[in-house]
Amino acid sequence: MSHYIPSVAILGIDAKPIIIEADVAFGLSSFTIVGLPDAAVKESKERIRAAIKNTDLPFPRWRVTVNLSPAHLKKQGVLYDLPIAVAILAAQENIIPEKEHSAVFLGELGLQGEIRPVRGSFVAAVAAKTYGYEHLILPKENAQEAALVHGLKIIPVSSLREVVDYLRNIWSPKQVDIPILLDEKEKNPFVDLADIFGQEHAKRGLEIAASGGHNLLLYGPPGSGKTMLAKALPSILPSMSPEEAIEVTKIYSIANEYGSLSGFISERPYRSPHHSTSASALVGGGAWPKPGEVTLAHRGVLFLDELPEFNRSALEHLRQPIEDGHVTISRVSASFTFPSKCMLVAAMNPCPCGHADDPGVICTCSTSAVHQYRKKISGPLLDRLDLSISVPRVETEKLTKRTLGESSETVRKRVEIARTRQINRFKNIGIFSNAEMNSRLLHEFGTIDEAGEKIMRIATERLHLSARGYTRIIKMARTIADLKEEDHILPSHLSEALTYRHSLEK
Fold it and tell me: Which residues belong to any copy of the AAA+ ATPase domain (predicted)?
């Protein structure tokens, strides 16, 4: 006799519905799983057999065949333990067949029948609601994360026995608590701009970058405050919209960064990988691809400190994700696409000793050493950094007087006003910042007058701007206009944008 149970297959940061079919027939005792399972799914046979027996339920003595449909999708992970076990029990008529067809099942089984948490429950809940299912039966540790999706009844369970009793209508689960918002700032206390002395030009650059979602490079001698400025950037970023929060929460549900999430991730991510990080760790990869740092920083900040110390090949892997806003990783079995719309923030010294542009200290590096050091960063990657901000050594007077500047909260209010203008401008388009504008949108919202065209002609010739560099300056000018609440890009906005477009080759 055969029976089927609904579940999901997680692909990238999305999930597709699948059907677990179980057939019990007379014949020699065997247990076969088909439908493109990976090693973890194949190993589930012994876990399922032991869990069913140790729950005092019958395991078939005949031939058991389990099919994971559709067969062309590769099935990976341990979340299929529970639906396979339920399908086998249903095939033996041990549970009520009408009830389990309206629910999606997922969970890992222990040998004693306990149900252990799995990753991706939020993504599974989104898929369950999208495809019309009414219930989601999953480990109790994942219940709050799944409850973020409204309109879906969450059934938290801790053992196979509870699942069977629920399907037999002899046990009812406790109500799941309403999830809360996760406040990332409590977990990651950032630097306040008021704590950074001097560096007014760099702070203004941070404000522009935060307002438009632009990439930036901070370069200067050691101890000038580059890392502190980068750590202060998240403190002036605006809160995410509900759509952005859902995107980020789905990513961290798959990556399982915080274990089982207890609420939406409301604050923008901040990732700062070490310079020994591999290319796969930066952009994602593996036999079964997982999100990399550029995806974990989606809608937030990816900070690369000591940029030239990173492997050049790893940095070159970032070029396409930063430009396109997504990463596509192809394998023989499938292709996976992860979002990567983050702000790339990089910091570096101007030379190996760090004092090439420092008037107060003599540089000990040869000309060739400085050239080789800067050559570690390719021109195409530098061209994707909208702002290049020089961070000079802080003057002694500013350090000793310790006069506090504007706080992050004050600057953040201006940033939020600028972002609100952009959200209203791009509503129904699917983007949230000026940095995301394509050529068509730039032609519509980035027009400049005759005086502005003259400035850009001169700048293009003198700075040898590429087409990409030209458009990025226009986008920056559009952001500066938004900060000043101007509807049109003025020559003064272009002039300020150009002050942040420097080349390290000079």
Answer: 212-395
